[in-house]
Design goal:
elongated, D-Maltodextrin-Binding Protein, domain 2, Arc Repressor Mutant, subunit A
């Protein structure tokens, strides 16, 4: 059968399946939609099966289509990576390092902790940001190689090496204006029923905060659950509520007087952890990790 198939037939099928439509595949390949459509029909005719279920302009892989796509996808995926590394003037045997970055890590830290791999000519880095649960599944599915997270037990020991980089201190802060709204007394009693910006249940911080306030019968008025440090800090600076933020991200605002420190506690000193595959045994990879500490 292979001598009756043109490589382009298979390639166009892969692009259409990856992009989800012939129009998008046309844009990516710079080939007309009619030509791609014709190539797909030829491929289906020679295989004797329908590869897509057509619903208007949308294309959905059929059962046979999924089988074919799953078989050829690793080949085309790795081929694209090889040519990408050549175009980017990196080594043809460059290692593609896919790093997942979880929420709650300040952008300065994200830069510092990923830069060594980006700068290294032996690696081409893909940075994937998402919720801890999303990154955990992506890691288990083999779509990413490392995860940078504040979650203590994101991956079991039998799935990944757990490398602690540092401890990230978090403190309760609010704006000067918001401080005037607080009740008299000490923290946390003075924030009871006051506006509070929490983290989502995807973050360990969410449950740490709950376990901190609940025994004290303190119930802050939760106005939002957000994992993006930049957004939380901006909301706090605008006086919309108080929050627990990593010290590294707000030191300037504290020194300038824009933010007021409500409380510090060792309970909110969280380890910053890299989880990575046990198959990563290169000396240069491990040396980068050690240099980050």
């Amino acid at each position: 059968m292979l001598n009756t198939l043109n490589f382009k037939h298979i390639y166009y099928f892969w692009v259409v399946a990856s992009e989800g439509s012939i129009v998008k595949a046309s844009t990516k390949t710079n080939v007309s939609s009619s030509s791609i459509s014709e190539q797909i029909k030829i491929l289906e005719g020679r295989l004797g099966v329908e590869l897509f279920e057509r619903s208007g302009k949308n294309l959905i892989l059929s059962t046979y289509g999924e089988q074919v796509y799953n078989e050829i996808n690793p080949f085309f995926y790795s081929t694209e990576e090889i040519f990408e590394s050549i175009v980017n003037h990196k080594k043809t045997n460059v290692k593609f390092l896919r790093i997942g970055v979880a929420p709650g890590i300040p952008e300065e830290e994200r830069y510092h902790l990923t830069y060594p791999y980006v700068e290294d000519i032996n690696y081409t880095v893909r940075l994937i940001q998402g919720e801890n649960s999303y990154l955990k599944k992506a890691y288990e599915d083999g779509e990413i190689d490392m995860i940078l997270s504040l979650n203590n037990n994101l991956l079991p020991k039998n799935q990944a090496v757990r490398f602690t980089l540092k401890t990230e201190d978090h403190i309760f802060v609010c704006s000067k204006g918001f401080k005037k709204q607080l009740a008299e007394g000490s923290f946390p009693k003075n924030v009871h029923r006051k506006r509070f910006i929490n983290y989502t249940t995807d973050s360990d911080l969410h449950f740490l905060l709950y376990n901190f306030f609940n025994p004290k019968s303190v119930v802050p008025l939760r106005i939002a659950e957000i994992d993006d440090i930049f957004i939380i800090k901006k909301l706090v600076l605008e006086g919309l509520g108080f929050a627990l933020l990593p010290l590294h991200s707000i030191e300037k605002e504290i020194k300038s007087g824009k933010l007021h420190v409500l409380h510090r506690s060792k309970k909110f000193s969280l380890p910053l952890i890299y989880y990575y595959k046990k198959t990563f045994k290169e000396d240069r990879f491990k040396q980068h990790l050690k240099n980050l500490v």
